Amino acid sequence: MNTNEVIETNDEYVMNTYGRYNLVIDHAHGCIVYDMEGNEYIDMVAGIAVNSIGHTHQKVAETISKQSKKLIHISNLYYSQEQAVYAKHLVELSPHDKVFFANSGAEANEAAIKLARKYTHKGEIITMKDSFHGRTLATITATGQPKYQKGFEPLPAGFKHVEYNNIDAVKEAITDETAAILVEPIQGESGVRVPDEGYLSDLRKLCDEKGILLIFDEVQTGFGRTGKFFASELSGVVPDITTSAKAIAGGIPMGAMLANKEVANAFTPGTHATTFGGTALACSVADTVLDIFEEEDLVTKSRDNGKYFMEKLEALKENHSCIVEVRGSGLMVGIELDYECGDLVAKAQDKGILINVANGNVVRFVPPLIITKEELDKVVEVIDEILP
Ligand SMILES: *Cc1c(COP(=O)(O)O)cnc(C)c1O
Q1: Which residue ranges have their beta carbon within 6 Å of ligand 1?
Q2: What's the CA-to-centroid distance between 321 and ligand 1, angstroms?
Q3: Which residues, 6 or more positions from 20, have their beta carbon under 8 angstroms from its beta carbon?
Q4: Rounded CA separation 182/215 (Å)
Q5: 368: CA distance to ligand 1 center in Å?
Q6: Contact status, residue 160 vs residue 127, Cβ threshold 8 Å
């Protein structure tokens, strides 16, 4: 097939839920993706913060190949060494005691909502406006953006939205029925919004006072994205439950919901399950991903190169008055502009850079954490050329 045939065939047979860019990606390696004509692009999207170790990593390819000949899936009726080994490895890197394996971010959040209700025997979950928690019915309801809920009513009961980064709004919303507060430590989808210092620790204090669980949605911020392994380490706040997914297994679908022992023990056999959660294949790949993180020191790279990148973007302000703010942490970076900038995506693509626009006016960068300063220089050069 050629590019047009792929697009036409896809549009004819795949349901029309995605506003896709006009690009067919044929193959990819490291930070570079290639279209069907062989043109190359620096990937500043990374499958939306998924391909943190870069595309088609040799070690991941070897693990997939080896594991696929040993054991792919057995269901959770049985044990596998791969799941046991990875669970230990992941839990030890987290501030928690136990993990439940899911297959996506939304499912990890669903599991967290269920666990919070089961543990507290209460129903109400407070979440934030402009948040994003996934596309299942419960998680679109948790998501504080009406556009994702419209047309899918009736929505599940028990969710309340308050302004992000506003501790008083949370205080006012708490009732005797509040089970948990679910929050992204940095909001991703709504345009890389970093809360004020003290906000997350104030949430922690409030939860402790009122006996409410604190849940961090680290589906996007987890696995080194923000310059720490989990973004919770930036504030030093330890939540009761952490969910994660995107970068967990190098692009193999997987999610995880982690909790401390007391809370986790509210789940007993039969209370929650998924057929595919924690397959031997996903766990072995995820474990290889953790090895790569260590060997290539990716958390440090994210922190240092993110800082370098943000400084260079900050300097663009001098010649581009349309820049309102450059913000982020590690290699989760956004530039807020004073206009709707969706047209920049095609302009960057023409110059060999894949970018993404969040919330209409924020250019979002979530590249592979292996990206080099030279590649980031090239990105800054292109942004400089295409910004008005
Ligand atoms: C992407 C995302 C989700 C949803 O993850 P899926 O794997 O698409 O279900 C949930 N929360 C946050 C913060 C995300 O960025």
Answers
A1: 104-106, 109, 132-134, 184, 188-189, 217, 219-220, 245-246
A2: 32
A3: none
A4: 5
A5: 17
A6: yes
Looking at residues 31-46, what average pLDDT do you find?
98
Tokens of 341: 């900038």
Compute, in angstroms, the gap from residue 227 CA to the centroid of ligand 1.
19
Helix axes 280-295, 58-70, angle to 10 degrees: 150
Check residue 150 and give its pLDDT: 98
Q: Which of 85, 117, 83 is CA-nearest to residue 100?
A: 83
Q: φ, ψ for residue 92 (rounded to 5)?
A: -65, -25
H, E, C per residue of the chain: CCHHHHHHHHHHHCCCCCCCCCCCEEEEEECEEEECCCCEEEECCHHHHCCCCCECCHHHHHHHHHHHHHCCCCCCCCCCHHHHHHHHHHHHHCCCCEEEEECCHHHHHHHHHHHHHHHHCCCEEEEEECCCCCCCHHHHHHCECHHHCCCCCCCCCCEEEECCCCHHHHHHHCCCCEEEEEECCCECCCCCECCCCCHHHHHHHHHHHHCCEEEEECCCCCCCCCCCCCCHHHHCCCCCEEEECCCCCCCCCCEEEEECHHHHCCCCCCCCCCCCCCCHHHHHHHHHHHHHHHHCCHHHHHHHHHHHHHHHHHHHHHCCCCEEEEEEECCEEEEEECCCCCCHHHHHHHCCEECEEECCCEEEECCCCCCCHHHHHHHHHHHHHHCC
Task: Report yes or no: 182 and 143 within 8 Å, Cβ to Cβ.
Answer: no
| Distance in Å, CA 171 to ligand 1 centroid | 26
Rounded to an integer, the average pLDDT of 41-51 is: 98
Check residue 312 and give its pLDDT: 98
Looking from the CA of residue 188, the nearest atom of ligand 1 is 15
Hey, which of 133, 190, 252, 257 would you mutate to test ligand 1's pocket, going by the most ligand atoms within 8 Å of its Cβ? 133
Ligand 1 midpoint to CA 134 (Å): 5
CA 361 to chain centre: 20
pLDDT value at residue 115: 98
User: Mean pLDDT of all residues in the chain?
Assistant: 98
Q: Is the pTM of this model over 0.85?
A: yes
Closest ligand 1 atom to Cα of 48: 1
